[in-house]
């Protein structure tokens, strides 16, 4: 992994933490304020004297909006991650991520009920989001995401991500996705290894010391 000055890593860590706070606050606002207001509006409409067709149209619009708010709120700061853990949160995200609708993917976890500390789990969730949003498998291949946990280490790896390494000079000038991966891994003191197939980089392997 490319090394970065300590001051740069500290600054990036601070920015990442601030970003997470903004995500959390916005998700809370969407869930607690906007959703509650829409629910109250729907209840008032149902009790009003409007025509049935008008009421039905309005309530359908509200239901659609509520679903979008819930989905966006979960994408910003998934309550599933805090409540049910990393595997459940990632499974939900991968099923619902718009950027995956035309991609083939596979999530493989061992053990299936692995439990990571909150900080590492959140970092890995963000890494998966970032890589999935910006990395494409080669035609006909499956994007493979693996989580492994042992008494000493926690590992996240991606396979078949050739698009992240399309630039011949990627090692010296990493694209924004790879740069963010490097910074997030460095923030937790982890290690990042690039995986190769026939001398071509096609994947990532990220390892953190186990805190469980």
Could you give a short description of this structure?
The chain folds into two domains: about 5-75; about 80-210, Heat Shock Protein 90. The protein has six helices and five strands.
How would the blueprint of this fold be written?
Elements: H1 6-47, H2 52-76, H3 79-84, H4 86-96, E1 105-110, H5 118-134, E2 143-149, E3 153-159, H6 176-187, E4 191-197, E5 200-209
Parallel strand pairs: 1-2
Antiparallel strand pairs: 2-3, 3-5, 4-5
Helix pairs in contact: 1-2, 1-6, 4-5, 5-6
Write down the overall mean pLDDT: 79
Shape: elongated
Q: What is the CATH H-level superfamily of the largest domain?
A: Histidine kinase-like ATPase, C-terminal domain
Helix amount: 40-55%
* Unreliable segments of 5+ consecutive residues: none
Proportion of beta-strand residues = 15-25%
When the domains are counted, the total is 2
Structure class: alpha+beta
> Roughly how many Å is the radius of gyration?
20 Å
What is the CATH class name of the largest domain? Alpha Beta
Q: Would you report the number of β strands?
A: 5
Please, how many helices? 6
Remind me, CATH topology of the largest domain?
Heat Shock Protein 90
Description:
The two termini are 25 Å apart. The protein has two domains: 6-77; 80-209, Heat Shock Protein 90. The chain contains six helices and five strands. Strands 1-2-3-5-4 form a five-stranded mixed sheet. The chain is 53% helix and 17% strand. By secondary structure, it is an alpha+beta fold. It has helices spanning 6-47, 52-76, 79-84, 86-96, 118-134, 176-187; strands at residues 105-110, 143-149, 153-159, 191-197, 200-209. Strand 2 and strand 3 (153-159) form a beta hairpin. Helix 1 (6-47) runs antiparallel to helix 2 (52-76), helix 1 (6-47) crosses helix 6 and helix 4 packs parallel to helix 5 (118-134).
